[in-house]
Known about the structure:
Blueprint lengths: L6 H10 L2 E4 L5 H16 L4 E2 L18 E4 L7 H21 L3 E11 L5 E4 L9 E8 L12 E4 L7 E4 L6 E5 L5 E3 L6 E10 L7
Helix pairs in contact: 1-3, 2-3
Organism: Vogesella oryzagri
Pfam families: 2OG-FeII_Oxy_3
InterPro entries: HIF_prolyl_hydroxylases, Oxoglu/Fe-dep_dioxygenase_dom, Pro_4_hyd_alph, Pro_4_hyd_alph_FE2OG_OXY
Amino acid sequence: xxxxxxxxxxxxxxxxxxxxxxxxxxxxxxxxxxxxxxxxxxxxxxxxxxxxxxxxxxxxxxxxxxxxxxxxxxxxxxxxxxxxxxxxxxxxxxxxxxxxxxxxxxxxxxxxxxxxxxxxxxxxxxxxxxxxxxxxxxxxxxxxxxxxxxxxxxxxxxxxxxxxxxxxxxxxxxxxxxxxxxxxxxxxxxxxxxxxxxxxxxxxxxxx
Length: 208
């Protein structure tokens, strides 16, 4: 699938700012199919409550995050998921050609935030594994109300004094460097759906 946006402009933003927000990043039909697939597997009870940490240190901590997730490798044969993965692979190849990040794979999951759910401020890179390099968030909610909350708040400086809030509107793709930007998900007044992922580089300190 050909990309819906100017990939060179995206690479320029990543090179200069380390983050970029891309509206209408995927065809509307694919976004709708992904939303339907997400809701279908949600209703089938395939999700689990999200945890923090990794390995032996992984734990459910409801005071930090209250979403539920389903890794896409569990439903990779769904047509919408396969098409999404193909598009994200095109982005990965372009990033590698333009920015030489050495990205090797994408790990990603559906995320469902029930009404009132949140994810407190955090970084996406583990202390003992530096493979996660570029975070990806793709939104699935159609016609998201401006007063419904659920934004991702991306902190733009190390002291977290400056930030932008990105509305979780269907078709919007957010990319940012995983080790650089603290961020959080604000509570929403209605169910919030997304696909969240991380491009992983070769040579991480701990094998996946």
